Automatic annotation (TrEMBL):
<dbReference type="InterPro" id="IPR036188">
    <property type="entry name" value="FAD/NAD-bd_sf"/>
</dbReference>
<dbReference type="GO" id="GO:0016491">
    <property type="term" value="F:oxidoreductase activity"/>
</dbReference>
<protein>
    <submittedName>
        <fullName>FAD-dependent oxidoreductase</fullName>
    </submittedName>
</protein>
<dbReference type="Pfam" id="PF01593">
    <property type="entry name" value="Amino_oxidase"/>
</dbReference>
<dbReference type="InterPro" id="IPR050464">
    <property type="entry name" value="Zeta_carotene_desat/Oxidored"/>
</dbReference>
<dbReference type="InterPro" id="IPR002937">
    <property type="entry name" value="Amino_oxidase"/>
</dbReference>
<feature type="domain" description="Amine oxidase">
    <location>
        <begin position="13"/>
        <end position="370"/>
    </location>
</feature>
Length: 455
């Protein structure tokens, strides 16, 4: 027997996962996407004869929810695991940063600071309770317990480049999630990351195929414009093309777009949540830039904070011998980067590469691609849990699950699945078969708040 209707607004990974779970449990599902295709931040483009994500992607060995979905979709044969390397560019020099030996060779800090850094990192990543630390600013804690040398040389530059004007307000709970994720992906000092052979397009294509086979109606180019409300109950919605009525509704779009929906109550969601934008400048190169997969740029004066050399994880042969380099930068909407076009971004991003690798020449470049989004991540500040909306809203039949619910974890495909599962559970969808992994997402807004405000 077909169960009641569920209409999902937003075709990113959270919306797609929710649609899959609901359809699998027999619900009649409609998925509405405002743009021309589903996938959101997971979408890809052609480069070097293959597909590649607009924004760099990998996943972790402990991502239980994502591994579950890949098994459901019979895609595990497409998963490849690779040992990867990290590095730091500091004081004009590249340092490997993969274990205790590399730490000892890191010259920008003294031995005592390195000891404090190692001890505090293990403490945060392995022992401390993230629920108790939301009231503490990460930088304040690092300066107190992790040593001034390592904080100045590593932590502060990394937080500055990621959070900009909000760097001094990042709660320690968020950092605990980051460290736990990275430490748990390591074995014997080596970090193993996973990738989908053929790119995330393989996942998106399979998701659309499976959803269609299960009867899910996928509608693109249909942004929601109005809610139809009667007696504090959501009866239906209007898009730019159609009207939909009956059943429950799940909104998965970023809260910055809520004001575009007519009749959405002011008290609904949002709660002052702000978003960072992100830009990825992707270079297709004739030569390798470095031997490092993930290089954090910790010196001032650089327009990017991360150099991710994708072909130091996935062989260059997958891209007709081209080397693929991401130059990544988050930005606040108040920064000038937010208003730059692709050509301006190229002109800013590419020249500084020669200061990192003096041998680099623009003659190496085969092609350049620029992708920019204004909703890459939420701005997480102190007591951010108070801004996370309740998934079950004050309007009967209306639910929300979006990027805010990923806190205190980091945006990822795995965490989107976890948030979707939590929201579906509130709507009466069976989700007990979705495993719980190491994700810290979906802890807030789904019936209880694990944070207790500490004065």
């Amino acid at each position: 027997m077909t169960k009641e209707k569920i209409t999902i607004i937003g075709g990113g990974m959270t919306g797609l996962s929710a649609a899959y779970l609901a359809a699998k449990d027999g619900f009649e599902v409609t998925l509405l996407e405002g743009s021309s295709k589903v996938g959101g931040l997971l979408n890809t483009f052609e480069i070097g004869g293959n597909q590649l994500e607009h924004y760099y992607h990998h996943f972790f060995t402990q991502d239980a929810e994502f591994h579950w979905l890949l098994k459901e979709l019979n895609l595990m044969d497409k998963v490849v695991y690779h040992k990867t390397t990290m590095g730091v560019f500091r004081n004009g020099k590249i340092y490997n940063f993969n274990g205790i030996v590399d730490l000892l060779k890191f010259r920008p800090a003294n031995l005592w600071d390195k000891f404090l850094w190692g001890l505090s990192t293990l403490y945060l990543g392995k022992m401390v309770k993230w629920e108790d630390k939301e009231h503490i600013a990460t930088l304040d804690w690092f300066y107190k317990y992790s040593g001034k040398g390592m904080t100045d040389a590593l932590w502060k530059p990394m937080l500055d480049i990621k959070f900009g004007p909000y760097a001094d307000k990042v709660p320690l709970s968020w950092m605990i999630g980051r460290l736990a994720q990275r430490l748990n992906s390591r074995s014997g000092g080596d970090e193993r990351l996973a990738y989908i052979k053929g790119s995330w397009k393989v996942l998106l294509d399979k998701m659309v195929e499976e959803l269609t086979a299960m009867g899910v109606k996928i509608k693109v180019n249909e942004p929601v414009e109005e809610l139809i409300i009667q007696d504090n109950e959501l009866k239906g919605i209007k898009t730019s093309k159609n009207k939909y009525s009956g059943g429950k509704y799940l909104i998965t779009i970023p809260s910055v777009y809520f004001d575009k929906v007519k009749n959405l109550p002011q008290s609904f969601g949002g709660n002052g949540v702000q978003y960072f934008g992100a830009v990825c400048t992707i270079l297709e190169l004739k030569k390798k830039f470095s031997d490092i997969y993930w290089m954090n740029v910790a010196d001032e004066g650089y327009p990017f904070g991360g150099i991710i050399e994708h072909t130091n994880m996935i062989p260059k042969e997958e891209y007709n011998g081209s080397h693929i380099l991401y130059l990544s930068r988050y930005f606040a909407m108040s920064e000038d980067l937010a208003g730059m076009d692709a050509q301006q971004i190229k002109e800013r991003m590419i020249p500084p590469l020669k200061r990192i690798n003096p041998e680099f020449s623009e003659d190496w470049i085969k092609d350049v691609h620029v992708f920019k989004t204004n909703t890459a991540a939420t701005v997480c500040d102190l007591y951010f849990s108070e801004k996370v909306p309740q998934s079950k809203t004050e309007l009967k039949n209306l639910f929300v699950a979006n990027m805010a619910h990923i806190y205190p974890d980091e945006r990822s495909t795995n965490n989107s699945i976890r948030v979707a599962a939590e929201a579906c559970g509130l709507m009466g969808v069976k989700t007990g078969h979705v495993p719980y992994g190491a994700s810290l997402s979906g802890k807030i807004g789904f019936g209880n708040n694990p944070f207790e405000k500490v004065s």
